[in-house]
Amino acid sequence: MSADRSSDGVPLDRARKARRKFLRSVGLAGGVIGLALLGYIPTTRAGGVRLRPPGALDESDFLSSCIKCGQCVQVCPVQAIKLGDLDDGFGVGVPMIDARRQACDFSCDAVQCILACPTGALTYKKPHSLGVRDGARLAALPILKAKEKDPENTLNLKERIGVARLAHPESCLAVQGKGFKGQVRGEAFKGRMRYMEVDRWKPIRIAEHPYDLPLCDLCVRECPVKNAIELRPVKGPDGQERMTPVVLEPCVGCGVCEMICPTEPAAIVVDAQAPWKA
Amino acid sequence: MNMSRFTETFMVMLGRDPKKPEQVSEAVRQTMTLKYQDKDRFVQEKLHTRASHRPSHEWRNRRWAVLIAVNLLFVLSFWLDIQMLEGSLTASRFVGFHLIDLNSALQVMLAHKHIIVNLFIGTFTVFLLWVLLGGRSFCSWVCPYHLLSELAEMLHLKLVEKKRVTDHEFHRLTRTVFWVLFGLMAIVTGYTVFETLSPTGILSRALIYGPGLALGWVFLLLVFEVVYSRRAWCRYVCPIGLTYGAVGAISPLQVSFRVEHCFHEGDCRKVCLVPHVLDVTVKGRATDMNMGLGPDCTRCGLCIDVCPTGALGYEVKGLSRLL
To answer: Is the entire prediction scored with pTM above 0.90?
Structure first.
């Protein structure tokens, strides 16, 4: 056996090249798989809970069943839905709603995003094999105020996507006994909403719809769901009789109250994927 | 195509090196004998063909036009609200019909373990479409990363020529390993792990819904391909290619090779993304007069453009030779 051949007769140079290629390939596989699994980090971090579109399956089922195509984005008349980016890990390309920027006001009436979803990640009818989280099930189909007089006046939505919460009662205008006059969130705010008295099928910019309210009740007034929130008397910090918004069971977590709240930051917010607690 | 050729090309797609054939058909044997009977004439003919060959980018330009048009149709359907092709490459509706990318559907099914009817319909439609259109032709005629990667490849080859970089090959079996691993990870983690990194999905969404951080990853991939390894993602990693390759294995649309016209110079293998499919163009490797290149061929047409003799061309099996 000559010196430049290995035991199986392959020239050493070739054997060395083959070994290098093999190690390189293992390195590539390890590297790419490692990078892919980094997607776990944002997915499991606390506080990164996203508000998902109506009809979304529970978070882990949602992430697995969503095919990341964005058809829900395309049908939303108020462009409430945006897609997750790389910092969302496995949530890359998965739809979410930033309610403060633009909430879902159900101005499509039928929840178009659910109709558009090709995989059932957004669905009217959850398969039985998938359970329902405690506090997610709505007691009754929510009545949409905008079509209250229609023969079919409910939204086909069986679970809530979150729950509203008065996070900063001290800054709430109603609690302070204040009214609101002018453009909610200012001239530059791009958020849109459907106003039935303007045009049922054409949402307009909120900035184009100024208000003049002796007592601010924007979150109650603009809540798209019937009986989901109301103003109730409360004793103010100064001992005076005041009003405060109270969130009720029919709240679906759409986030319109958070979008329309004129204080900065919003006094009322929606807690994404939160359960209803009586 | 006979069964052994089918198995052979499928195994080569999975990562095995092409084998030297044990025997060739009588027609091929006679052709080869005839071809090399008169050495001088052979050289004369070769030089003449070379001299009269006008390099063309005909198929490449057609393909780029189609690739750009398809992706533009996605973009415009959303931006101008013309609603022709809604969604992105992972899943869409073409004038209302569900279309679902086969690899994305596979990842979702493995991760979610539940199939709904729309998903099945869309997947089946796309399956039929790519059986007809040639499987991996998805890669070269539709995938937006393929186009960027082709441009990166041009840069890579220039740098190689100037000896500034060298190409580091990986084992082709790596792609098969990736295909299995991404499938296993979807099953085990319950997440569509591959979609997080897929430059195809990332680019398609970036074009339609606007750019994001994820483009940084695509950029890094392209840099890797320019400075380290030619077309690394498509060649050694992407499971989409292998999924469509398997579909294309039974496709009638293919690039085919006619040995009688070939001078065995190997220009085609130099431009090819998957040169192992062109192993039949090596002298002595063709076993039949007319041979399809097999499932891993992306039907991109670069070899057809570069071939000075017209030995390579598109063909629909069952129909006579197309072009």
So the answer is: yes
